[in-house]
UniProtKB/TrEMBL annotation:
Keywords: Oxidoreductase. GO terms for molecular function: oxidoreductase activity, acting on the CH-CH group of donors, NAD or NADP as acceptor. PANTHER family: PROSTAGLANDIN REDUCTASE, PROSTAGLANDIN REDUCTASE 1. This is NADP-dependent oxidoreductase. InterPro entries: ADH-like_C, ADH_N_2, ER, GroES-like_sf, MDR_fam, NAD(P)-bd_dom_sf. The keyword Oxidoreductase applies. It comes from Streptomyces antibioticus. Residues 15-328 form the Enoyl reductase (ER) domain. The keyword Oxidoreductase applies.
Length: 330
């Protein structure tokens, strides 16, 4: 089977030469292991961090070895109790066609309950990120005005809709194209949205949220964060989920110039990691699952076909080629 390997650590934007798609033997499972044929593989912005050597909350990818990431696939051989051939599992052996691993690292998923790709997105990691970041870290409450950046992406589109469904007074989103902006308002029910490429973020945000924002869910950092601080209401909360605008920077980016505004607003900025909020999983699946079935929460996926396009799909996420969760279908 084919697998993607990191050959050298990218500086700035990753280049094709930093990677190779190599043929690797398919290993039969040893005791307690399963062999899975991947059906859908996830590409996520955080993977850029794992390509660098810097210490972080997940270890860097090892040079010359298969990269990792979320994936769902079908068990085609099993030497593990409780996992049978034909079962579908969510696991971490992505960026490859076949994966052999300890069955305890996999979670069974039901293809009858939801399409398999949903377990990587709307009902998976990015969905829980939206749910936990908005409801727990940002301590969202009914009546809050919520601003989310990266709003047409996997996490952001769910943040805005959860806020609306839970009684936000106003939901504002920003995204990088006019089509995405249209989608936010017309399909996801945002009250206002703007294209951050059309003008200064601070001005566009002030126009979209004339009464300020109580919650800012940050996926982007940079100008967006500074603008949100500028529009923050008293008691406002900023949940820092991601800062995609700086992931390929080679030098540290200057911070927001207006942090003093946190004093008068008693504002709070707090980062979070989805990994720390797994306890919300059952509640998340119950609530979001019900909204999906009722059709009140909508989601998109951008599906790229073929393991050979895994790298392009990943770069596409960094460029903004995706609307909703970016998925590679094998
Ligand atoms: P998305 O589906 O949102 O895809 C990334 C999007 O970022 C692109 O589609 C693009 O959309 C936008 N983007 C790229 N460059 C820029 C830029 N310079 N300025 C503004 N927007 C940009 O990805 P995810 O939903 O998977 O992730 C969203 C964020 O959440 C990321 O920052 C990610 O790192 C973070 N994250 C954090 C987690 C945590 O535990 N804290 C867990 C999961 C994700 P556009 O066309 O609008 O520019």
């Amino acid at each position: 089977g084919r697998e993607w390997r990191l050959l050298s650590r990218p500086v700035g934007w990753p280049k094709a030469e930093d990677f190779e798609l190599a043929e690797a033997p398919v290993r039969q499972p040893g005791p307690g292991e399963v062999l899975v044929r991947n059906a859908y593989v996830s590409v996520d912005p955080y993977m850029r961090g794992r390509m660098s050597a810097a210490k972080s909350y997940v270890a860097p990818f090892e040079l010359g070895k298969a990269m990792q990431g979320g994936a769902v696939g079908e068990v085609i051989a099993s030497a593990a109790e409780g996992v049978a051939v034909g079962d579908h599992v969510l696991h971490f052996g992505g960026w490859r066609e076949y994966a052999t691993f300890d069955a305890r690292q996999a979670v069974k998923v039901d293809p009858a309950a939801a399409p398999l790709s949903a377990y990587l997105g709307v009902l998976g990691m990015t969905g829980l990120t939206a749910y936990a970041g908005l409801l727990r870290t940002a301590a969202f409450k009914e009546g809050d005005a919520v601003f989310v950046s990266g709003a047409a992406g996997a996490v952001g589109s769910q943040v805005g809709q959860i806020a609306r469904l839970k009684g936000a007074s106003r939901v504002i989103g920003s995204a990088g194209s006019d089509d995405k902006v249209k989608l936010l308002v017309e399909e996801y029910g945002f009250d206002a949205a703007f294209n951050y490429k059309n003008g200064p973020v601070a001005e566009q945000l002030r126009a979209a949220a004339p009464d300020g924002v109580d919650v800012y869910f940050d996926n982007v950092g940079g100008d967006h964060l500074e603008a949100a601080i500028g529009s923050l209401n008293e008691g406002g909360r900023i949940a820092v989920c991601g800062m995609i605008s700086v992931y390929n920077n080679t030098e540290a980016t200057p911070g927001p110039k207006n942090l003093a505004r946190l004093i008068q607003t008693r504002g709070r900025i707090e980062g979070f990691l989805v990994n720390d909020h797994q306890d919300l999983q059952p509640e998340f699946v119950r609530e979001v699952g019900a909204w999906l079935r009722a059709g009140t929460l909508k989601h998109r996926e951008t599906v790229v076909e073929g393991i050979e396009n895994n790298l392009e799909a990943f770069l596409g996420v960094l460029r903004g080629d995706n609307t909703g969760k970016m998925i590679v279908k094998l």
